Amino acid sequence: MFESFEDYCARDFHRCNVVMETRLQRGDDFEGFLIRNLSLSGFAGDSASMLPIGAIVGIELPSVGLVEAQIRWVMGTRCGALFSTPLSLEDCRRAVVPGGPGERPRDTAADLRG
Q: Residue 105 and residue 85: Cα distance in Å, rounded?
């Protein structure tokens, strides 16, 4: 396993690979969204619909709340977004690790197999 949360995120170019079900806000509407990776600067995942490049959205992050981002790339319903203000390491940690230090990151591929 990894010695620290920082090691976990650093293993893949500072992205945390996760499978995290959440909601994405576009205007006044919310839709389901599956985050596949999260970093201090943005996220990537699958939306319920195709989002336009440049759209300003909000993504609900567990223990953090609604965070504003801009859609930067789209491939069908998969997309990537850049946060308007980068997450702090602490916010990223709270979103990914459910109980704090010593806990496993939420919903990783290993969790899905178990």
A: 23
Specify which residues 37 forms β-bridges with.
17, 44
Higher pLDDT, 8 or 37: 37
**What domains lie within the chain, and their CATH numbers?**
5-99 (2.40.10.220)
How far, in Å, CA of 104 to CA of 85, rounded? Answer: 26
Q: Are 64 and 94 in contact (CB under 8 A)?
A: yes
Reported pTM: 0.75
